[in-house]
Write a sequence for this structure.
């Protein structure tokens, strides 16, 4: 009889021991996993954590604004993509593969497989989001850091006008006064922005780069209009603090004076500066007192982006934190239509592009208007 053969009891003990070891290791792994989940939940519960959205292509979490009706509006920061956020299976690729030039060529020349009658062009949904991203990328106010609020209809958000006051309390004393957060309702219902582009047979037939030409030109045109509206809205806002003295945007020393006045108004160091092209060049041309050395940006403003726009009023600039102070309210689509034979007397067709967008000041206390002549 072979005495080395384990008994049934010994075999069961071995199996039970192996199971206990496996369960102990598995319990340790689960405890580590639950601990990680608890940390994530704790972080998400902190003030300022995002309330929803998703992570796309490393762009980070998409924040949301919740309306009184409970609707969550995506709030994209300047580096996030609407096309990625709205990405449905294959939608982005369809938009990327779609050739707008070929579509217009087929519509104008009457190709049977893609003939467009008067009305909406049959462009893929992905193209609309990509065109909006192209507009945002070309907009100076967005490059300065302004967020984009994506809406699908008229809605209302809050505009912060004043922070509450914090009091130090002495026991038993009546020394705490009410100081509410002052917020005013802000209606978001942007008007239509539209452009009409004549399309001749000669243009669409003889332009092999028509797709790139149309995409680039349309994005630049809409971006220019959004900048015009946004800058005008900021400059007209009486709640935004302004220079109390002569603070020429063309001179670095005067720029620091404006920043100092903004800091005195409890603002932070500006993350961006938008001025005129002339003032930008004048600052860049400044030489140090020793001569032959460019003066350059002061170290205190090393993190400030210098931008310029032809829409800015002469000798005026806007500085501040645009990510919190300003936003672009934008409907979800940019429509492109081709109207055939819209101008029969000149043998021309018509490309119609339209979208709804406008700028809104969310926190006037985050911005500052610098002026050479106060």
């Amino acid at each position: 009889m072979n005495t080395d053969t384990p008994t049934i009891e010994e075999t069961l003990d071995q199996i039970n021991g192996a199971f206990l070891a496996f369960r102990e290791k598995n319990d340790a792994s689960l405890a580590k996993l639950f601990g990680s989940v608890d940390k994530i939940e704790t972080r998400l519960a902190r003030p300022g954590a995002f309330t929803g959205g998703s992570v796309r292509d490393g762009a980070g979490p998409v924040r949301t604004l919740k309306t009184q009706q409970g609707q969550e509006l995506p709030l994209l920061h300047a580096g996030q993509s609407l096309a990625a956020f709205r990405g449905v299976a294959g939608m982005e690729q369809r938009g990327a593969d779609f050739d707008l030039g070929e579509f217009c060529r087929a519509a104008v020349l009457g190709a049977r497989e893609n003939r467009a009658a008067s009305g909406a062009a049959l462009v893929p949904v992905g193209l609309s989001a990509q065109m909006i991203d192209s507009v945002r990328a070309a907009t100076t106010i967005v490059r300065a850091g302004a967020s984009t609020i994506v809406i699908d209809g008229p809605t209302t958000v809050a505009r912060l006008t004043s922070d509450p006051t914090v009091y130090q309390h002495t026991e038993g004393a009546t020394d705490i006064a009410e100081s509410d957060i002052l917020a005013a309702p802000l209606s978001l219902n942007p008007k239509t922005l539209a452009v009409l582009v004549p399309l001749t047979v000669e243009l669409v037939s003889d332009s092999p780069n028509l797709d790139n030409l149309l995409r680039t030109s349309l994005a630049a045109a809409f971006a220019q209009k959004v900048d015009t509206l946004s800058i005008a809205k900021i400059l007209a806002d009486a709640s935004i603090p302004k220079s109390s003295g002569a603070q020429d945007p063309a001179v670095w020393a005067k720029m620091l004076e404006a920043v100092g006045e903004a800091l005195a108004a409890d603002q932070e160091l500006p993350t961006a500066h938008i001025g005129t092209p002339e003032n930008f060049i004048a600052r860049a041309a400044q030489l140090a007192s020793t001569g032959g050395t460019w003066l350059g940006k002061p170290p205190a403003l090393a993190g400030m982006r210098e931008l310029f726009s032809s829409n800015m009023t002469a000798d005026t600039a806007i500085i501040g934190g645009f990510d919190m102070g300003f936003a672009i309210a934008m409907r979800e689509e940019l429509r492109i239509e081709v109207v055939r034979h819209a101008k029969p007397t000149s043998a021309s067709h018509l490309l119609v592009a339209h979208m709804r967008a406008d700028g809104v000041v969310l926190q006037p206390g985050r911005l500052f208007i610098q002026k050479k002549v106060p």
User: Anything to note?
Assistant: The longest strand covers residues 326-343. Residues 9 and 273 are 81 Å apart (CA to CA).
